Amino acid sequence: MEDYIINTTEHEDIDFNELDKVIKFACKHLKVNNPMLNIVIVDKKRIQEINREYRNKDAVTDVISFAFEEVDDVEYDNIRFLGEIYICYDRCVEQASEYGHSVKREFCYLAVHGLLHLLGYDHMTEEDKKVMRAEEESILNEYDITRWKKESKRNKKISFKFHLSN
After folding, report:
1. 16 with 162: CB under 8 angstroms?
2. pTM here?
3. pLDDT tens, position by position, 63-73
């Protein structure tokens, strides 16, 4: 099964292999079979436009998800169509610096965060936020990508390619 990552930014240093791995790992962890989703890497201007148009918030944000399943249970030929995740590369880099961890870790975090939104997780209440954060940390810790500067055994290069299959 093919899924797509679209890089609409000027950043050419993004290799999509690691994102593929973390999304596959998260889907397996969450017992999501045959998922299909798109991830679009955007700049600050585009994420702000999306945030303004769809959320009525005229501000830059790090990640926005659009779940197909909010409308209907979208499945065809045993493929589960989850939706789209938009990640702002520039905010990702800024947040990695702010939080004191690698860009790779932040990118993986934003991808997992977006995936959880596609699956119905949210952080509108404190209880929901606790549940979602625990799931994010569980996935990333099991995947062996650390929160702090000490990197895991995995390759430090940000790498993203997208093919999901079971």
Report:
1. yes
2. 0.83
3. 999 998 665 55
